Amino acid sequence: MNLLSLGVLRKRGSFVKGFKSGVYDKQETRAAFLFIMPALLLLVVFIFYPMTRALLISLENYNLISGSSSPAGLDNYKQLMSDGVFWASLGHSFYFAAVVIPLQTMIALGLALLVRRTFRGVGIFRTVYFLPVVVSFAIASTIFKLIYNKDYGMLNVILKGLGLPVADFLSNPDIAMIGIIILCIWKAMGFFMIVFLAGLNNIPDSLYEAAHVDGAGPVQQFIRVTLPLLKRTTAFVVIITTMDALKIFVPVYITTSGGPAQSTSTIVHYIYETAFKQMNMGYASAAAFILFGIVLLISVVQLRIFRTDVEY
Amino acid sequence: MDKRHTGLFVLRMVMMTVIALLVIFPVYWMIMSSFRTQEEIFKYSKLGWELFFPVQPTLDNYKAIFTDPSKPFGRYMANTLFVAVVVTAAGLLVNSLAAFAFAKLRFPFKKVLLVVFLSSLVIPYEVIMIPQYLLIGELGWMNMYKALIVPQIVWVFGIFMLIQFFTDIPRDILEAGRMDGAGWMRIYYKIVLPAAVPALITLGLMTFLNQWDSFLWPLVVINEEKKQVVQVAISSFQSLRNISWGKVLAATTISSVPILGIFLILQKYYVQGITMSGVKG
């Protein structure tokens, strides 16, 4: 009865919402807030507060070495606009992303198609292809660094043995990034293979049977059935890969430290160096915000593209 | 099966095997070389069987990394294990409580709070890293394990994943518990948690792996040698001059092979996590 009268009272304010909110159980509400509180507190202290503060710091001249901070307005941003090293590092990140996104997506889809059918032993192949995902980035980078070594590395020993020209992935600025790209694709392709595999399993067999009856060969089935129905999965893979690729850091830090001749210094490596080597927090925060803006913009554009594609 | 199909199948198997060998090679090479002497690693620079198998297998590299007092590798492993276990346990508790409230309880401002939680997913780590670092300094947590633990506990991806899982638990069961006079806390750990064990294993595994692999944050907030985590310690192994490849590879092997083992045993849950949430760990 109590609840009902509450509901009636609330009706004055807003008809629909009022009645619903009138039926909240007091104990249940208290329990809910109690349950959410720890997570919310941690979220506010370690994510939302730092986010706000990052914006404020980016508007300051904040150097930890000199311990000074003074308001700078938009100076950091203006200075970044004419900072060649910043733009170069952004360029390296985009180059990395532009190669990795299509290549890795195609390889992952290819692997998923290979291990899709169930036959004896297919589980072993899936496990093997997925294994590098479980190897940490730091360790993967370390292994590849040694394998790439110009004089003693396995790669060049094998290339030499086969009579091929040696590839010097770590000290030749022209190809250093390619070495990092190979390492990253090796590490991540298994993850996206699993995502594609889940997408492929969602396509009903009846569609393939229908296509088969209509006389479509394997290639046509792939183009007419598989690809269109994988659009959502592909969207997910491309968007996540883009975000990851633009933020690549650990392999760069470990294999080349941004060298040779700054040729592999990505944007996050630049932010790291500025913040934690030069201790220039304001400038680094401004760079991080520009990166944030770019990533957000690209994600929104990608979502739009994929959405309109699905609708038509 | 006609000839063409068998032919295709064989071709496909060959292709898959070649790819598998290429994929597994770096891991195999790491493990194999960690059993080689320093001399042997650099000795064979021509193609031949010696290149792919240790000629005189030795455990010296492992002995060396565990007995070097300036680089206490056992300590690094213990540090990392401690941090990863605490973050996983605390994270499972905090995130599952929040997820339970969002999935099953009725309370005012639920939608608003959920949007607040989800909006944090847009914030890239690179942006908040600097103020987080300053905050850790102000709290006086530099070089302390809590700097590695506390900021990592809440994981909105995890909450989101668990919400999807908890939604399937019928509200009637919870109401029945209420009728029996149980409080919500009791319902949470008597009814909800047992029903969600597979999801909790998935989330726990992902959290643990993320923590075990964590690199950038410990690199920044831990400067004291003996408190470092294993991933950063390994990367500092090789920045030293006169590095021993054998030692580096023994270190990478011993810090990744147990993880690969855990994965092989629990891979069902890990893969389920990827496909269930459609979200990256």
TrEMBL record, chain B:
UniProt keyword annotations, A-Z: Cell membrane, Membrane, Transmembrane, Transmembrane helix, Transport
Key word Cytoplasm present: no
Entry's Gene Ontology BP terms: transmembrane transport
Gene3D superfamilies: MetI-like
Cellular component, GO annotation: plasma membrane
Protein's cellular compartments: Cell membrane
Domain ABC transmembrane type-1 per the UniProt entry, residue ranges: 77-266
PROSITE patterns noted in UniProt: ABC_TM1
Topology within the bilayer: Multi-pass membrane protein
Top-rank taxon, per record: Bacteria
Broad class of the protein's primary localization: membrane
TM spans (from-to): 9-31, 76-100, 112-136, 148-166, 187-209, 248-266
Family: Belongs to the binding-protein-dependent transport system permease family.
Protein name: Carbohydrate ABC transporter permease
